Amino acid sequence: xxxxxxxxxxxxxxxxxxxxxxxxxxxxxxxxxxxxxxxxxxxxxxxxxxxxxxxxxxxxxxxxxxxxxxxxxxxxxxxxxxxxxxxxxxxxxxxxxxxxxxxxxxxxxxxxxxxxxxxxxxxxxxxxxxxxxxxxxxxxxxxxxxxxxxxxxxxxxxxxxxxxxxxxxxxxxxxxxxxxxxxxxxxxxxxxxxxxxxxxxxxxxxxxxxxxxxxxxxxxxxxxxxxxxxxxxxxxxxxxxxxxxxxxxxxxxxxxxxxxxxxxxxxxxxxxxxxxxxxxxxxxxxxxxxxxxxxxxxxxxxxxxxxxxxxxxxxxxxxxxxxxxxxxxxxxxxxxxxxxxxxxxxxxxxxxxxxxxxxxxxxxxxxxxxxxxxxxxxxxxxxxxxxxxxxxxxxxxxxxxxxxxxxxxxxxxxxxxxxxxxxxxxxxxxxxxxxxxxxxxxxxxxxxxxxxxxxxxxxxxxxxxxxxxxxxxxxxxxxxxxxxxxxxxxxxxxxxxxxxxxxxxxxxxxxxxxxxxxxxxxxxxxxxxxxxxxxxxxxxxxxxxxxxxxxxxxxxxxxxxxxxxxxxxx
Length: 570
Description:
Elements: H1 2-38, H2 53-59, H3 64-93, H4 98-111, H5 114-125, H6 130-135, H7 157-179, H8 184-193, H9 198-226, H10 230-235, H11 243-251, H12 259-297, H13 308-334, H14 351-354, H15 360-387, H16 392-402, H17 404-407, H18 414-423, H19 430-455, H20 458-466, H21 471-482, H22 484-500, H23 503-509, H24 516-525, H25 529-558
């Protein structure tokens, strides 16, 4: 018994240490790689003493205060509006027939990379974009593109809109997963019997319970919105840009000494994320106070329900705009002549698609990187789940390591990680790039696989063990069929997340390993509409093709186990 306890403790310790090595160590190394230059210490460039000069140099940069305010404003407003729209859609459309169509499109929108959404919005909202073309000249009276431009706008509202178009589907998916664990119908019936309207019932009873379960993804959305790079490069104002873009420009400056003040900006980005989370806590407190007052007052607010369809339609507008933008990108990829103000191209051609040979290396890199990182993340999670039972100690420390990439801005540690990798000769290698992508993929894999692993009916496992089946045989013949769909979902989500990773690929890839996402952002920034539209379509194609392959393989291998999805005895 003592030997078993010692072995159990050793397995737990090894799991925690593995988590620290895989996740915590690279992030800490990356942060130290920007912390020391931020303090003026960069021996490679001849800076051997600590100083406040990098901090003062960055703080005195023209427009830096406006950049900080822009990043804070866009990040907070985008997160608040995304969560509000998510809750409005759930409240107003949850039981409508049209919600099933919206629900089927969520996975597709979540799989679309941020840069593809941004490219689509550029094609939609530009002065000669598809929206102006559709409304001209009948409604707008424009016979030529207007002089003003919505993309980018000087206040960051288009960036907020783009973030909402991407984050609303994600929050809806996690919210629907939370709703599956709640007796929503019973709650609605009880509220209706007490005279509460639909809005009052959901706002005071159901939505607070949903928010408790999706709080972690909301924080992840907030930190990402505060430090977004790929969407900001296309949609954010340039004078001044958001803080993350200002830091990125410093890192990419030809003058290597500019990395020192940029490093301080990266540390400032972490402080901005902390401030954003602190403000969010204050908003949570205000909302709790308001809902408590609402509950104590017994406000039924039945008259508000009549306006709920209007609010629901308004909440869906960002999703509709994202879909319309992707259609516009597709049209530009096959457009020949398309003169303003025609709503559709005068003719079509496949010149850009015929030049696919130049994109083949990028597609190959993207597919191998996304598939390799997703598969590696899945193997790591499965190894952890079977290495040791998940006690509170293991959960507390290991989960802290796993979810840390959610709460630390990418720009804050990727440069330091790249510098550290260059010192050991691993920058620009497939090993380093797959490792970094795996760090960002694994939290999503964990959230999908571990609940499925815990939901398995262990009576089946014990029965197989009594029949002499080894642990490996039980995993292959029993656990894999029961967990087939969660594992396939984890692979698909991992590929989609990897496709959306722009900044890790730029830094860790060191320009030697490029992907279709990096190329798409570059083409869109350069104003090449046709090639950019093609690149956006190719970004979407990889997750779609991957999903088709995974689904086909799943049906071929585990189709006969379709009645065992729950992992329990029937």
